[in-house]
Amino acid sequence: MALRLLSRFAWIVVGGLFIFSGLIKLNDPVGTAIKLEEYFEVFSSDFSTIFLSFKPFALYLSIFLSTLEVVLGVALLVRWKLKTVLWLLFLLTLFFTFLTFYSAFYNKVTDCGCFGDAIKLTPWQSFGKDVVLLVLILVLLFTQRHLLSLGQMNRGVSGAIVVVALLFSLVVSIYAYQHEPFLDFRAYRVGANIPKLMKPSAPLRYQYVMEKDGKEVEFDVYPIDTTYKFKKMVPLNPEDGPKITDFNVWNDQGDFTKEMFLGNRLLVLVKDVKKADQESFKEINTLLAGVEKSQTPKIVPVVITSSSSQEFDVFRHEVNLSAPYFFADATVLKTMIRSNPGLLLFRNGVVVEKWHYNDIPELLEVQELVK
């Protein structure tokens, strides 16, 4: 009886977790691809440069692996080809367990991206999660007879459900790629107050680790005794720290970060001019021309790029982009929006709306948002 309950518990948890994990990633396939690229770069430096050859296929691998998670989770719950599905789940989890252990042990990738931006796990938490999952799958492999005793679903019906899950996953991922994610868990989501998120939500407290006579001693207040040697500071409330620490905008004249938070700003983000969709600038230029002529409400157009000034000067003449431009870190721009180019509308530093280049708005829509 206990073994039967354990088997059914593992069945529901494993199936549900794989579906949840896959859907979270399919919600943001570009974000998952960015995480895969990070792994490829780590492995190329640690093992072989051959891993760099996978980078151009990161998006396809993102969609494939995320879809596979959903399909296997659904197949497990409907008990379709149970033995095969369990072995595939075991091998997939074993592979992920190796990745998360390697990341944790060598401190390579600080966030595995297991649940996208929705749930952040430390490397060791990710490894622990995979170990538990591996144990549960082993339980299922040795007790699958208890799942079959639930009553076998018609094979045609269960197969049809798996096919529907496959098609649904592909539709979700393709739509999310061609637009913005359905659910935005990033710090720059609509409604986010960027200046506020750049400040701690509460005074940060630290524990001071000191050394004296070969022994480490911890203090909540920095000791005045000069015989103690400082070792390190450990934050006691890191959750109260700034949620955004790397948003900086500049040009040759200096830092313009604070200026981005003044009034209404329409930001055109161009991460990489070599990969930017040039056709979309016809609509973007039309929008910017209307914004510049509009006085009520006043909206200031700004272009931000992570390309070099030489590259961007050539590019902006090619696409006839005539707005003041600034620079920002490429990782920040990737986090702000998943399209290249993309638009963000700021009102006193608050994200009012954001648009993929496939969804360039009309001038009236932008004006209505800041009235």
UniProtKB/TrEMBL annotation:
One GO cellular component term of this record is:
membrane
Membrane-spanning intervals of the chain: 9-26, 57-78, 85-106, 126-144, 156-177
- Stretches assigned to the Methylamine utilisation protein MauE domain: 9-142
**What protein is this chain from?**
DoxX family protein
**Top-level taxon in the UniProt lineage:** Bacteria
Q: Where in the cell is it found?
A: Membrane
Q: Which UniProt keywords apply?
A: Membrane, Transmembrane, Transmembrane helix
Tell me yes or no: is Membrane among this UniProt entry's keywords.
yes
Might you name a Gene Ontology BP term for this protein? Answer: methylamine metabolic process
Organism expressing this protein natively: Rufibacter tibetensis
Its membrane topology is listed as: Multi-pass membrane protein
Return any one Pfam family short name. MauE
Spell out the InterPro entries in the cross-references.
Answer: Methylamine_util_MauE (IPR009908)
